[in-house]
Amino acid sequence: MNRRCIMLLALWLGASGHAQVLQYKPTWVSLQRYECPAWFRDAKFGVYFHWGPYSVPAYKTEWYSHYMYVPGHIINKHHLETYGPLDVFGYKDFIPMFKAEKFDPEAWAALFKMAGAQFAGLVAEHADGFAMWDSELTEWNAAKMGPKRDIVRQMGEAIRKQDMKFITTLHHQWLYAWYPTMDPNTDASNPAYQDLYGPPAPRSAFCGSDRSPDPLPDAAFNQRWLSRAKEVVGKYRPDLVWFDNKLHILQQQSILEFLSYYYNSALSWDRDVVATYKGRDFRVGAGVLDLERSRMSEAKDFPWLTDDSIDWDSWCDVQDPNYKSTNRLIDTLVDIVSKNGCLLLNITPKADGEIPQPVQERLLEMGAWLRLNGEAIYGTRPWKIFGEGPTKVVEGHLSERKNRDATAEDIRYTQDGRHLYAIVLDWPPDGETVITSLHATTDVGAEGIEAITLLGQPLTWSIRDQGLIVQLPDERIGEFAYVLKITPNGALVMN
């Protein structure tokens, strides 16, 4: 009997030896007993995707389903010119066009694995109200309409065959007042479509993630949110459930009931799981904090997550994509890992199920870099300092555009308990790396440095006034960040 089983048995029997039910209760005090699993802290890198009926127009943003109904908005103008009046052609009419005829879950999962991802999944339901699974709660789902396939199940099975953890993301709270459900000039007010567009709510009730709607969602909407979230967990047993922000508009008890259900279910599966949250949507300790298109400026003593998109401007496929460079993506991953975080990278499949070639190229380049340098990423932990260099990270929601590309002077550290990894984010023009944070050999090991290598190749180095000076090979190795593996004599200095 393994340690976890012994622990669970002891909890059930209690001190008296009589069977009793011990579970996470729907209270913050109980849920704050949660501990982030080691698999998440070791994984570092995951991939997911935004894909749904909004991928059909592929215009500007995944928020197309909202903005198409906002008078005067550029997307509203585009929709009227391209598809016609909103009472004739509404969002529901994109669903039959979302056929996913080229969708190959096995190939997608293999690509994610080649990219170096350790966890992967999909947006199970975006703010548009369309479920990507075979739901018993709504007919507006991918198994019954559009692709007529259970996308969540098929992706989950393919991802787990590749020995990756499976994740689902849920955005359903955004559905409240997402559509103009009280505007008779649109199809969104038709009661026949209420299960897709949501309950009647005034336009004024729609708000961003930093405010509360007026009026708040009623008990029926809260139950709708809770039932769908529990259905995904019950049917597909995801290893990680990621929530978009704006959970604060729900009754707190709905969130508590979901978390207790998920964590208790995981105990019965004998599986360690993760639930993520943004801002103040959970109490600290009840899950893993997630940052959207942003990073920490300093290392943290708790594990955290960044979700970011491969496209600077959109989370879904669009007609005029603006993809980030592979160099930017790798540097972002390294910076996040050095500060005790993990990166969840979103990609942008086309409506027909094809992953754009530039997206595939970037994933494969990341994977090639990780195959060479993964020991400095996977399973590592932060060192006593996260790094050095002139490029500082600007914190804040959606702040990624405020952060400049890194330079050859920017170095990030990770460690595995035996080695220190100095990850230099660009190749220096003079072939010499100066690590100013290390002024003596004893900064790394109590008895000095034994060796410094680059991809197994020994390098020469010296300690001078300006710090540790490392001589690099005459020719640059690779196109992206490079890893100096520093082996100390004796124990690695950790503080």
Description:
With 495 residues, the chain is of the alpha/beta class. It folds into 2 domains: 23-376, Glycosidases (TIM Barrel); 408-488, Golgi alpha-mannosidase II (Immunoglobulin-like). The chain contains 12 helices and 17 strands. It has an 8-stranded parallel barrel with strand order 1-2-3-4-5-6-7-8. A 6-stranded antiparallel beta sheet has the order 9-10-11-17-13-14, with helices on one face. Helix 11 links the parallel strand 7 and strand 8 (341-347). Helix 6 packs across helix 7, helix 6 packs across helix 12 (357-373) and helix 9 (219-236) runs parallel beside helix 10 (252-269). The chain is globular, with a radius of gyration of 24 Å. It starts with a helix and ends in a 7-residue tail after the last strand.
What is the terminal separation in angstroms?
Answer: 38 Å
Strand order of the largest sheet: 1-2-3-4-5-6-7-8
The figure for the number of domains is 2
Q: Could you state the CATH homologous superfamily of the largest domain?
A: Glycosidases
What's the short version?
The protein is α/β, with parallel strands linked by helices. Helices cover about 25% and strands about 15% of the residues.
Pick out its properties:
2 domains, 495 residues, six-stranded antiparallel beta sheet, TIM Barrel, globular, alpha/beta, Immunoglobulin-like
